[in-house]
Amino acid sequence: MDYPELAARTRRFSYGAPRAVTVSPDGARVVFLRSSGPEDPSDALWVYDVAARAERRIADAAELLQYNRDEIDLPAAERALRERLRLSAGGIGSFALDGAGVVAAFALGGRLFRADLLTGDVVELRAAGPVVDPRPDPTGRQIAYVTGGALHVIDADGTDSLLAGEEGVTWGMAEFIGAEEFHRFRGYWWSPDGRSVLTARVDESRVPRWHLQDPSQPDQAPTTVAYPYAGADNAKVTLHVLDLDGGWVDVHWDRETYPYLVAASWSEQGGPLLAVLRRLQQHGLVIAVDPRTGETQVHAELADPRWVEPVPGTPVHLADGRVLVGGELAHDGYDARCLFADGSLITPPNLYVRRVAGRLDGDLIVEASDGEPSEQHIFRIPITHSSAQAQRLTSEPGWHVAQAAGRTIVVGSQTLEHGGSQYDIHHNGEVIGEIASLAAAPPYAPRPVLERVTDRHLPTGVLYPRGHVSGRRLPVLVSIYGGPGHQEVIAARARWQERQWWADAGFAVVSIDNRGTPGVAPSFDKAIHRRFSDVILTDQVDALQALAEKHPDLDLDRVAIRGWSFGGWLSGLGVLRRPDVYRCAVVGAPVTDWSLYDTAYTERYLGLPAEAPEVYAHNSLVELAAEPPVRPDDARPMLLVHGLVDDNVVAAHTLRLSAALLGAGRPHSMIPLTGATHMAAGGLAEKLLRIELDFIRRSVG
Q1: pTM for this structure?
Q2: What are the residue ranges in the chain where pLDDT is below 70?
Q3: How far apart are CA 316 and CA 310, in angstroms?
Q4: For residue 373, what pLDDT is reported?
Q5: How many Å apart are CA 97 and CA 480, to the nearest integer?
Q6: d(Cα 685, Cα 504) in Å, to the nearest integer?
Q7: DSSP of 377-427, one letter per residue?
Q8: Beta-carbon contacts of residue 377 (< 8 Å; ≥ 6 apart)
Q9: How far is it, in rounded angstroms, from Cα 514 to Cα 484?
Q10: Among 189, 305, 300, residue whose Cα is nearest residue 251
Q11: Burial of 183: CB neighbours in 10 Å, binned 0-12, 13-18, 19+
């Protein structure tokens, strides 16, 4: 079996691998999801007992539903949430724990289940309707869930109560922008005593309606979605503290000035904490909420003339009552992404902090990079020292993630030395076991050359065919994303598996992380503000030329570029603006007209379209494609690919680009993916590989 088929059958070697790893608050259990093997798409709920040093399965979709688990029909709200999470796994999609880590709640095909992780008992609770995002209260006595846009609470005996609901308004769910752009995937938070719920109310009545239809299904009515495109109205998001006995308190903050709810938390150490941002995201507040009155107090201000970049896992109360906030250090020669406790720096300025991953025996556990953006390591941060200190817990070069609580930490590691992820369980400072992976072994052991080039020290990777003989000139395939929040150049073998297939097809595969991608420094991240196309494309071209000087086997007369989403935009930009560099492009699900993309993302980087129309026009592929080529040879061929029911980057982007290309006489082909969303899941992406390969071979010669 060759790579494309194997990758499709194993979902790129992720079936059977652990995911959603969570440590119970006392550190006694590790809870996770995993399917039964390398071709099983249906995830089951598992628990690892730290004291017994053994794992056991708690819940399986096929056993609970008593029918083919591949036939599970998800509620529309659950499908939308999984799309925001980029989750294509089957079976149990997610779970939530109570405060002791003893009770787990999860939805399966819209049905509600409660699992006792000590006894292994799993019971179904009769809900009022199809269930989304169920969460036990901290005491484990009751479970909240959302159905039909209403928030319900159900007791262990099955008594179901409507907590909040009204026609045309959603309670307890994150709005599109909150989930898609701020990665806030939830809309309610239990109080520590389980007597109240901090709940988001989302009113989308002012948000423009778009209509998505798959032309291959003419008998089906279009799906109408509320889509806040750049410059349009956003959803109105308000917060309310709802008591289970019927009490109701509105949370007050200047929502007109700070409309974006970025993060929220409610812990035993203090009342609710919120992070809110202005529309252009150059200023924000961390505010504390009095749950009795709904009044708020500003705890910290966040400001940046470009944009504020929150640190996941913040804000949150520390055990001593101080508030942990993420921010940046940009004075006295520092250029760092850090953590602060009540304004005091607690992480060393050499770290680029990416996420707060939990607490280990009172100390913070963070994921961060230390000088090398292709690697992520785990650090232990003591919060009692007067000076910022960090103890690095991982040593092997690679990409490490963690979850920690009590005296237990689980470290997941991907490196260039082994395939897949390896999850080691540490307790009291010792490795006591691992979470077994049942995933298929990848067929390749790629050995990319990772290096920094140009005076901007841009991270790059070059991958050759296996058995390549030095001196043989190769066409170049630039495999790219290039946008904010995502890196391509990672010291993890899994990231290079598909690229090895391309390399073995006869290419030198190049990946470049231009300015605007994370991991280097805040100034590197934010150099693209209002200058998307100029900065990013300049970095890509300069890095490619610098790599050719170091790697003489790269034939820069035969360069192709391919990417998806932001990478699709960048691929199209490359052939349209620099046809002297790129001979052809595979343009997947691109944002071709930024005025058609969502508010929070687009306005963060480009501003409001009414205030900066020239910025939008300058970064538009549609505008660029409509210009006739200066010379016939400048009209480089493009292969456009787009899912027709994509609700993130709608298919109109590619259709408008195709119309502009046609009008200017520019050669291109288009593959519409019927029934496909932005993820192009279900093996579609893998099935496209050979078509893309044929197109690129014909185009580069």
Answers
A1: 0.96
A2: 67-72
A3: 12
A4: 98
A5: 38
A6: 19
A7: EEEEE-SSSSS---EE---SSSEEEEEEETTEEEEEEE-SSSSS-EEEEEE
A8: 367, 368, 369, 370, 392, 393, 394, 400
A9: 10
A10: 189
A11: middle
Query: What residues does 123 pair with on adjacent strands?
Result: 114
Q: In what order do the strands lie in the sheet with 260-267?
A: 260-267, 270-277, 283-289, 296-303
- Each residue of 111-120: b (16+ CB within 10 Å) or e? bbbbbebeee
Give the alpha-carbon dihedral of 181, 654, 695, 419, to 10 degrees. Answer: 10
For CA atoms 590, 227, 152, 403, the dihedral sign is positive
Which residue type sits at 174?
Answer: A
Strand residue runs (E) in 633-686: 638-643, 668-673
Instruction: Please classify residue 93 by burial: count the beta carbons closer than 10 Å to its beta carbon, then call 0-12 exposed, 13-18 middle and 19+ buried.
Output: buried
H or E element that contains 52: none
Residue 495: its H or E element: none
Give the DSSP letter string of 58-86.
Answer: EE-HHHHHSS-GGG----HHHHHHHHHHT
Residue with tokens 């027709």: 644
Please name which of 229, 84, 43, 174 lies closest in space to residue 677, comparing C-alpha atoms.
84
**At which residue do the structure tokens 């400072």 appear?**
429
Q: Which pLDDT score is estimated for 67? A: 62
Q: What is the pLDDT of residue 147?
A: 97
Give Cα separations from 105 to 121, 314, 349 (angstroms): 12, 24, 40
CB atoms within 10 A of CB 570: 28
Count CA atoms closer than 13 A to 470's CA, side-chain side: 3
* Residue with the two structure tokens 């699992």: 115
DSSP state of 233: P
Q: In 120-253, at which residue ranges do the beta strands (DSSP E only) sit?
A: 122-125, 132-136, 142-147, 150-155, 160-164, 170-171, 188-190, 196-203, 209-212, 223-226, 236-243, 248-250
Please report the pLDDT score of residue 71 as a whole number. 53
Question: Which residues does residue 670 pair with via DSSP β-bridges, in sequence order?
Answer: 640
DSSP one-letter string for 428-449? TTEEEEEEPP-PPPPS-----E
| pLDDT of 393 | 98
pLDDT of residue 70: 52
The torsion angles phi and psi of 395, rounded to 5 degrees, stand at -120, -35
Per this entry, what is the length of the chain? 701
**Distances from the Cα of 653 to the Cα of 450, 518, 544, 573, angstroms:** 34, 26, 28, 14
Residue pair 316/273 in contact by the 8 Å Cβ criterion: yes
d(CA 99, CA 24): 8
- From residue 367, how far is each of 363, 381, 383 by CA, in Å? 13, 11, 16
Mention every residue, 6+ apart, whose C-beta is less than 8 A from residue 219.
none
> In the numeric block, which tokens belong to residue 64?
């609970």
CB 143 within 8 A of CB 136: yes
CB hemisphere CA count around 37 (13 angstroms):
2
Q: How far apart are the first and last CA of the chain?
A: 28
